[in-house]
Design goal:
The protein is an alpha/beta fold and 250 residues long. Strands 2-3-4-1-5 form a 5-stranded parallel β-sheet. Strand 3, helix 9 and strand 4 form a beta-alpha-beta unit.
């Protein structure tokens, strides 16, 4: 590597170092000025850094698989507003520290929609973190036992949106309820939360165990929130039926 290349890397200008020679040759052939050459290098560096940041944000989000809004069939869900989904995808609610609550039967696309929205927000440069409710509670409880609960909650606070998937599948003990409630309280009006659940609020007492804690948790989540209801037949069940019907025709 020549001296200029080394100096550019010392300045953390990786794209400059990789492309300055080839772009200089191209600019010379096109009779471009030194200013135009520098502009080309700067533009390339900005795009390079942007793509690296997006890749880093997607990796940090820990999304379990790749989903997008184009592959989410919203038309099959009666009453689901496409304009509302687009509005939420813009990420404006994040600046207001509002929440999103997605309800529906198993297989209706709650996880798909939450991951697709998360991907949109990451592409906008937002810091997102996805975790299942079961894993989150395990992590919170372990942190409490190790006297590191505050540190973990502070770590999660770095993320603008915390996605808690399948909260209804979790049967909580009193200790588990306490740490989950503490997390929800800490993020209230400070950071956004997206929660998916197949249980309506009326049945959340089986999660938080007592009426007072359930009411307090629901109150914090519902205040400043958008609620999406995915009332439709299970997508997986529908596919299974279609395959079975096709098999019967052969």
């Amino acid at each position: 590597m020549n001296q200029l290349g080394k100096q550019l890397r010392q300045l953390c200008l990786g794209s400059f170092a990789d492309n300055y020679a080839a772009m200089a040759e191209a600019c010379e052939k096109n009779s471009q000025s030194h200013i135009e050459y520098l502009q080309s290098l700067v533009t390339h560096e900005i795009e390079y850094r942007h793509h690296r940041r997006i890749d880093r944000l997607l990796k940090q989000a820990k999304l379990p698989r790749t989903k997008n809004l184009k592959s989410f069939d919203a038309k099959r869900i009666a009453g689901l507003s496409l304009s509302k989904i687009k509005q939420l995808a813009s990420g404006d609610f994040i600046d207001r520290c509002e929440n999103i609550l997605i309800f529906g039967n198993p297989g209706t696309g709650k996880t798909h929609l939450s991951i697709a929205l998360a991907q949109e927000w990451c592409l906008q440069g937002r810091r997102i973190f996805y975790i299942t409710a079961a894993k989150l509670i395990q992590d919170l409880l372990k942190a409490k036992e190790e006297l590191k609960l505050h540190a973990l909650i502070k770590k999660l606070d770095r993320f603008e949106v915390l996605i808690i998937d399948d909260i209804s599948y979790t049967a909580c003990s009193r200790d588990e309820t306490d740490v989950l409630f503490q997390l929800l309280s800490e993020r209230y009006e400070m950071r956004s939360i997206l929660i998916t659940s197949n249980l309506p609020f009326a049945k959340w007492d089986c999660i938080f165990k007592d009426t007072m804690t359930t009411t307090a948790a629901v109150d914090r989540l519902v205040h400043h929130s958008s609620i999406l209801e995915l009332n439709a037949e299970s997508y997986r069940m529908k596919n299974a039926k279609q395959k079975q019907e096709k098999g019967g025709e052969n």
